[in-house]
Design a protein that fits this description.
CATH topology of the largest domain: Rossmann fold
Strand content: 15-25%
Number of domains: 2
Order of helices and strands: EHEEEHHEHEEHEHEEHEHEHHH
Structural class: alpha/beta
Shape: globular
Distance between the termini: 13 Å
Strand order of the largest sheet: 2-3-1-4-5-6-7
CATH superfamily of the largest domain: Glycosyl transferase family 10, C-terminal domain
Number of helices: 11
Length: 318
């Protein structure tokens, strides 16, 4: 069977488009997964994925929506030159960001533009032409084979949270308010992340999330958005792949994708939620009870939900 090459273009700053990032998502060398090779800078790919691609540059510092509308006049030839003559039916548009109120109109415009160039368009919201869960990517520096074969690492502490001080949306601000309340409580947890306020007393930023998760029984996995049936992000995948039991705040998508018992539901971002975290993290009992479910969930993430597996299954239709 001929190997099909999949190229990528993206506006998403969370992705390192150097080729080694892609290779961490597969056990094979050079980005191979079954019948495909994922090679972001390919000049003559068989398929192309436009991953969180903005058809106009992001705003600096103006309103993103106003900027988008002004830049919509960007000539089609500029976009077409990025597509490497891939037929429309073999071009995929995947939007990965949640439909926050601040960006919904921009997301809709991106979907509208994508229909000019792409045969398949999807995102984790009801506005997408094909609403669907995001294929899984993760932000652990471990090799795929290590993640796939490793036993649970030694657990030395109760709970961690890796987050950031971003406060540009109401949802971000709500998360920071919960963080402040949690820090004011007597719940013991270690906090890591970038640009966090001084009052948070964070342990600092970490380059590899593995080191802020793997020594802990529990991890707080709190989404920026929890209001639909589609959105679930790497916050949950990273936590499980590090053999944590996630205490998860998010929408219902996770329940449909992962085995029962592989994560816990944080009931709310308030005093009730803080009391729940305190009760669960007081002992490692819940982690031991969930260990088999965590192991099963890790295999689902690595082999089924994986972006490369999703792309392989997509290309099989041709």
């Amino acid at each position: 069977m001929k190997t099909k090459t999949v190229g990528m273009i993206s506006s998403y700053r969370g992705i390192n488009q150097e080729v080694d990032w892609l290779w961490l998502q597969t056990p094979e060398s050079f980005g191979h997964w079954k019948n495909i090779q994922m090679y972001a800078p390919a000049t003559e790919p068989d398929f192309l994925i436009m991953y969180q691609f903005d058809f106009s540059p992001p705003p600096q510092p103006k309103s993103r929506l106003d900027w988008f509308r002004k830049k919509q006049k960007q000539s089609e030839s500029d976009i077409t030159s990025l597509l490497h003559s891939v037929p429309k039916e073999r071009i995929i548009y995947l939007l990965r960001e949640p439909p926050l109120d601040e960006v919904v109109e921009v997301n809709k415009l991106n979907y509208q533009e994508a229909q000019k160039y792409c045969g398949y368009i999807s995102g984790p919201d009801d506005f997408a032409p094909n609403p669907d869960y995001m294929p899984a990517i993760w932000y652990l520096s471990n090799s795929f084979r290590d993640l796939d074969q490793m036993p649970p690492p030694e657990k030395k502490a109760a709970c961690s949270w890796i987050t950031s001080g971003i406060n540009r949306s109401a949802n971000h601000q709500r998360r920071l308010e919960f963080l402040k309340a949690l820090k004011s409580s007597d719940v013991e947890f270690d906090l890591f992340g970038q640009n966090l306020p001084e009052w948070s007393k964070a342990r600092g930023a970490i380059g590899g999330k593995w080191y802020g998760m793997s020594p802990y029984y529990y991890n707080l996995s709190i989404e920026n958005y929890a209001d639909n049936d589609w959105y679930v992000s790497e916050k949950l995948w990273d936590s499980l792949l590090a053999w944590c039991l996630p205490i998860y705040y998010g929408g219902s998508a996770a329940d449909k994708l992962l085995p029962p018992g592989s994560f816990l539901r944080l009931p709310s971002l308030d005093e009730k939620g803080i009391a729940y975290i305190k009760e669960v993290t007081a002992t490692p009992d819940a982690w031991y009870e969930a260990k088999d479910a965590i192991a099963e969930a890790r295999q689902v993430i690595l082999h089924k939900l994986n972006l490369l597996n999703w792309l392989s299954e997509f290309t099989d239709k041709f």
